[in-house]
């Protein structure tokens, strides 16, 4: 009665010993991409080398995000500007990738082929080709959103009687990938009629070293701006993220207008009407 189970056990042990070491390790401790570690057989197999496929997404360095791996993906969602490395089994000879008008050629690294593309600015289709075999993968590019900047104080536009004193400015800035800096921008317009002069500047620029939320508190000295009666100040808070691209990743708050009253603006004369003659 014990003979059939014993024979079955011995057959199972024999099959386990005959399995390649990589297969046993994959069953014992599975991980992403381990299917590519199995022997590929010939350098250029008769079948498609586009399956199995491993995609490694490497976000831009300024984001401080970790890379991720996907097995046999149909769609890849990642931040625009990320590097996407595709790997498969076998030699890279004859394997190409096309993204828009760009064409990439695979390289061979050990027992794998590898091709690297950059995530475009908008969703696109990537075509992988291996001789008569092909495979389409959607690259769902996610734009890097600009920081959200809110101006809390002052709550509305205002008029000052004299060009002296201090104006408190308070607000906050938020960014999902981290803030680089914030500052206050101002524009002063002077003159009247068809003759106007403008000057601008930046106050209280601060670095935030990648924090995701920052409170902003600034006190502006009216005297330091050298204002005259009738001048108008436009103020807004600005926040920038760590995206190094020129002009990218900058958010602004609402603009507040502060006007200095003109001379005689608040003067008034009360004349009592005379009786009829």
How does this structure look, described?
With 277 residues, the chain is mainly beta. The protein is built from 2 helices and 19 strands.
Write a concise synopsis of the structure shown.
The chain is mainly β and 277 residues long. It has helices at residues 3-18, 21-28, and strands spanning 53-58, 68-71, 75-79, 83-89, 95-99, 102-105, 107-109, 112-118, 124-130, 133-142, 148-153, 158-160, 166-174, 179-192, 195-207, 213-221, 232-241, 250-252, 256-260.
How many helices in DSSP terms?
A: 2
- Count of beta strands: 19
Low-pLDDT stretches are 40-44
Sheet with most strands: 6 strands, mixed
Task: Measure the end-to-end span.
Answer: 141 Å
**Structural class by sheet pairing and helices:** mainly beta
- The portion of residues assigned to helices is under 10%
Oligomer: single chain
Share of β-strand residues: over 45%
Q: Whole-number radius of gyration?
A: 33 Å
Give me the strand/helix succession: HHEEEEEEEEEEEEEEEEEEE
- The mean pLDDT is 88
Shape: elongated
Describe the secondary structure blueprint for this structure.
Blueprint: H1 3-18, H2 21-28, E1 53-58, E2 68-71, E3 75-79, E4 83-89, E5 95-99, E6 102-105, E7 107-109, E8 112-118, E9 124-130, E10 133-142, E11 148-153, E12 158-160, E13 166-174, E14 179-192, E15 195-207, E16 213-221, E17 232-241, E18 250-252, E19 256-260
Parallel strand pairs: 3-10, 12-19
Antiparallel strand pairs: 1-2, 1-4, 4-8, 5-6, 5-9, 7-8, 9-10, 11-13, 13-16, 14-15, 14-17, 17-18, 17-19
């Amino acid at each position: 009665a014990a003979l059939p189970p014993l024979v079955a056990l011995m057959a199972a042990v024999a099959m386990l010993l005959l399995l390649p070491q990589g297969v046993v390790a994959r069953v014992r401790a599975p991980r992403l991409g381990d299917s590519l570690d199995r022997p590929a057989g010939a350098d250029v197999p008769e079948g498609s080398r586009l399956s199995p496929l491993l995609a490694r997404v490497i976000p831009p360095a300024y984001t401080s995000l970790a890379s991720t791996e996907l097995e046999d993906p149909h769609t890849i969602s990642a931040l625009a500007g990320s590097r996407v490395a595709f790997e498969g089994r076998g030699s890279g000879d004859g394997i190409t990738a096309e993204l828009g008008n760009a064409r990439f050629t695979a390289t061979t690294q050990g027992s794998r082929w590898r091709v690297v593309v950059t995530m475009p600015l908008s969703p696109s289709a990537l075509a992988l080709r291996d001789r008569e075999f092909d495979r389409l993968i959607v690259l769902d590019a996610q734009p890097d959103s600009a920081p959200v900047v809110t101006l809390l104080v002052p709550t509305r536009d205002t008029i000052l009687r004299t060009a002296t004193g201090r104006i408190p400015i308070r607000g906050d800035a938020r960014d999902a990938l981290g803030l680089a800096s914030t500052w206050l921008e101002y524009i002063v317009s002077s003159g009247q009629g068809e003759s106007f002069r403008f000057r601008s500047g930046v106050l209280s620029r601060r670095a935030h070293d990648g924090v995701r939320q920052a409170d902003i508190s600034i006190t502006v000295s009216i005297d330091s701006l050298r204002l005259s009666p009738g001048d108008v100040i436009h103020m807004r808070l600005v926040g920038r993220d760590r995206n190094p691209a020129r002009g990218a990743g900058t958010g602004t708050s609402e603009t507040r207008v502060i006007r200095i009253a003109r001379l005689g603006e608040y003067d008034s004369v009360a004349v009592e009407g005379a009786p009829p003659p």
